[in-house]
Amino acid sequence: MTAYALREAIRDVLGHFWNESFGQIYPTLYALEADGHVIREGGQRARSSTFTITASGRARLRDLLDEPVQESPPRNGLLLRLFFGRALGPQRCADLLRQAQTQAQVRLAELEGLLVELTAAEGHTPDWPYIRLTILAGIRQARASADWAAEGLASLDAVTPDTGASS
């Protein structure tokens, strides 16, 4: 798989829970190659090369997957803005919530479509039950986000613009 194909696969298949940039992928592939965890075939540049995982690479992957899960500290620009919502006012906060709701609904539709598509294509493979778990988690998160945004919009209806307090 080329670095570009790897980036596309991460975006398309893992994108609802994992993200990597080209700036992360290329140095990582070079380090994996230096450690003997992947073999590069083709051109001298990563962009034109194909990388294949080696037996030691599979062992290293298993080791990484066995490590305890480390949660990243949360960082949510929307929630930060809503926390300081009085400075923005209820109308701007409502706009942010409508945008978040739309994004969640789009993501929900994408994931539901992905579930149908992959069920037909991958439903018989040994990896499918595990892949399905991640898609179902994304569906639940998107649905919860859309519902939360709707609830937030309803609660902002009771806020008076001048003070930000509920009536």
Automatic annotation (TrEMBL):
Pfam families: PadR (PF03551), Vir_act_alpha_C (PF10400). Residues 3-62 form the Transcription regulator PadR N-terminal domain. Signal peptide: none annotated. The keyword tRNA processing does not apply. Residues 75-156 form the Transcription regulator PadR C-terminal domain. SUPFAM superfamilies: Winged helix' DNA-binding domain. It comes from the Bacteria. Keywords: DNA-binding. The keyword DNA-binding applies. This is DNA-binding PadR family transcriptional regulator. It comes from Allocatelliglobosispora scoriae.
